[in-house]
Amino acid sequence: MTKLLEQAFAAARRLPAESQDEIARAVLHLASHDGEPEPIHPADLAAVLEGLGQARRREFATDTEIEAAFRRFDP
To answer: CA-to-CA distance for 56 and 7, rounded, in angstroms?
Structure first.
């Protein structure tokens, strides 16, 4: 096990049980797919392709746009 993974698990141990289970499910999911990409639902394909195009064109959100997006989730 790498040191980074050990640090991640140590940090996870300090979280509530529900959060630990969520992390465990994510790790197991990632480890079981052997690097295969997740299938894209046809309804989401256009948005995914647009996002890939934006990344290729290096059209990324500004720091201000990202901060505004995160503020929408603050209680």
So the answer is: 33
* Residue 54 near residue 60 (C-beta atoms within 8 A): yes
Residues 47-56: tens digit of each pLDDT: 999 999 999 9
Q: Which amino acid is at 65?
A: E
CA distance 30 to 37: 10
Rounded CA gap, 25 and 28, in Å? 5
* Cβ(22)–Cβ(12) below 8 Å: no
Give the closest residue to 12 by CA, choosing from 1, 26, 2: 26
* pLDDT value at 21 more than 80: yes
Q: Rounded to two decimals, what is the model's pTM?
A: 0.47
Q: Which two tokens stand for residue 15?
A: 């979280």
Using the 8-state DSSP alphabet, how is residue 6 labeled?
H
The residue type found at 49 is L
Q: Tokens 């746009």 — which residue?
A: 65
